[in-house]
Specification:
38% helix, PH-domain like, 3 helices, 4-stranded mixed β-sheet, alpha+beta, 4-stranded antiparallel β-sheet
């Protein structure tokens, strides 16, 4: 039997976040410059025909959307920079401990480092919801009905990978597996 299991959990540095950050940055700058071009009555972007757009209400709304998109893009780029959610799960049967580590937002609680005893684990629970917003999560179910998610947020892992990981965890921790 394995003495220790170690799973890395990827954070916010995913291709989809880079794509959304780039789209929001480019779009936001475009909208803001278009709105400002209408206000100053001078084309800040060479391909804009400002004579067809009035500042009030179209230019003002474009400035608002531009500022909103740039604000969201800054938030996404900061999340990517900080790599929120990145960490690991370690299950050590030799010491009888479970360690769950994640990186959070900067501040005094940036390091999320949870430690539990294997003897406190009741079971491993799997939740699979398909549809428009699929959700596939492995939970560590502790005594006192406390459940801790072990899989990454955002992109769901494949069902086969989820089942294999959950079965390996249940086997290593010698607990029951729920939800499959």
């Amino acid at each position: 039997m394995k003495q220790s299991l170690y799973y890395t959990v990827p954070g916010a540095r995913r291709l989809s976040n880079y794509i959304w950050g780039a789209i929001l940055t480019i779009g936001g700058i475009g909208f803001l410059l278009t709105g400002l071009s209408c206000y100053f009555n001078s084309a800040l972007l060479p391909f804009i025909k400002i004579d067809t757009i009035q500042f009030f209400p179209q230019g003002l709304v474009m400035c608002f959307y531009g500022v909103l998109a740039i604000s969201l893009s800054i938030y996404i780029w900061l999340i990517i920079l900080w790599d929120l959610g990145q960490g690991f799960n370690e299950f050590n049967t030799e010491t009888g401990e479970i360690r769950i580590f994640r990186w959070g937002f900067p501040g005094k609680n940036r390091r999320i480092d949870l430690k539990y005893l294997i003897s406190d684990v009741q079971s491993i629970r799997v939740e699979i919801n398909e549809g428009l917003n699929p959700r596939r999560v492995i939970y560590l179910k502790l005594r006192g009905n406390r459940e801790i998610p072990l899989t990454r947020a955002g992109q769901p892992i494949s069902i086969q990978e989820l089942e294999n990981q959950a079965a390996e965890l249940a086997r290593t921790l010698q607990v029951s597996l729920e939800g499959i």
